[in-house]
């Protein structure tokens, strides 16, 4: 009988289009190993919302394949597993987090020490970071030429079907999911997430179908509108690999072809967003300090301010700026926030409150279900003006005008801030300007059931530009 092959599941929690699983299945009976490794990433262990998602995703996967769950440093767990099972090969999907390269090298060593072969596959990205380089052979630092190079590299490979596999049926000890206490209990802050999401491969496939049926045609024109539900909401599924970017790409291309030209603009726009994810990961691979340090080093001298009270108001969605607060409350309830609102809320933290972007990045890391070491870091740096190809620092979002432009009737704000639901549309993004009688009729008591603005945006903007002067000479 063929000896077992060890398939180490990581951010690839799916059976379809999975090169590592396909290869493991061809080799022998498959051991499906997932390791909860809180040691290797150091203080970058999974945040709370991600832990909730992981539990649900593994639960869904365990209905399809017998998972062996172990906890500890992945290389040590794999060494032990090889010894216990006699597996003669290890297969896994490549990961790009700053600690992953070393970990993968250690796994190779333990596999070879045990006399097993070790195989790494792509799939989390469309293109490996080594494959997309500029004319001088350097990594791209600017998105547009990067995306052109990706398009020029051609369409992703055809998808791999779910392979025929035989699961290893020998006795191997496994933790239970409950042992890992990934779900919150007291308080159970994840109720809103449970109502909102179906983690797992089937949920991902359904989400993609729904997006193509209902969202794609509006995507190019309305993707910036938080009051319209037209974006794909695929980010957490991509984050955990419950769907591959190639699956998204091919499905959208197929819809584009079927529509005979009507979806060309929408499809291009969507694929370009998928390439922003790609860009973030390529940056992260080449500049692994991206989650902690500014890409543009001159920003290390930026005169940030410490303001625990303002940070807490921002986290709780109590800044007094409705579009910011609605976003932060959406995040808390559902684990997600619309991209446009992420930009506004991040800009507010960094520029209106002068709080370091790293504080916001950490909060998102803990609370987003799509918290993603590449996208989160690159996006925060983009807003802060210190990233590669970032928005210039001096372009400061006005939260009132942004709200009025992208949520014109205030529907998004009213959904997440029910205390403002009865305000007339003209005041919903600037309640402090509403006459006392209007506030009273709407049941709004500023300073009581909704806060006064924590800062005056005009003054905060001047202060931010003043602070920027400290590094401007070098920026
Ligand atoms: C401050 C800030 C923090 C962010 N943190 C994260 C994060 O932790 N994880 C994360 O996946 N995205 C992050 N983003 C990017 C973006 O907001 C989300 O990817 C997007 O909102 C997900 O919604 P969607 O799946 O409906 O996107 P769609 O518009 O449907 O896009 C499809 C896919 O493309 C990718 N994508 C879209 N926009 C971006 C973008 N601007 N940058 C990189 N990839 C993108 C995502 O994988 C997304 O699922 C952040 C953006 C900002 C401004």
From TrEMBL:
Sequence ranges assigned to domain Photolyase/cryptochrome alpha/beta in this UniProt record: 3-126
Cofactor(s) the record lists: FAD; (6R)-5,10-methylene-5,6,7,8-tetrahydrofolate
Textual note on the cofactor: Binds 1 FAD per subunit.
Gene Ontology MF, one: FAD binding
Reactions the enzyme catalyzes: cyclobutadipyrimidine (in DNA) = 2 pyrimidine residues (in DNA)
PROSITE patterns referenced in this protein's UniProt entry, alphabetically: DNA_PHOTOLYASES_1_1 (PS00394), DNA_PHOTOLYASES_1_2 (PS00691), PHR_CRY_ALPHA_BETA (PS51645)
Record site feature (Electron transfer via tryptophanyl radical), residues: 304, 357, 380
Biological processes per GO annotation: photoreactive repair; response to light stimulus
Alphabetized UniProt keyword annotations: Chromophore, FAD, Flavoprotein, Lyase
InterPro entries per UniProt: Crypto/Photolyase_FAD-like_sf, Crypto/Photolyase_N_sf, Cryptochr/Photolyase_FAD-bd, Cryptochrome/DNA_photolyase_1, DNA_photolyase_1_CS_C, DNA_photolyase_N, Rossmann-like_a/b/a_fold
Pfam families attached to this UniProt entry: DNA_photolyase, FAD_binding_7
Sequence positions that bind FAD: 219, 231-235, 270, 370-372
Similarity comment text for this entry: Belongs to the DNA photolyase family.
Protein name: Deoxyribodipyrimidine photo-lyase
Source species: Aestuariivirga litoralis
Upper classification of the organism: Bacteria, Pseudomonadati, Pseudomonadota, Alphaproteobacteria, Hyphomicrobiales
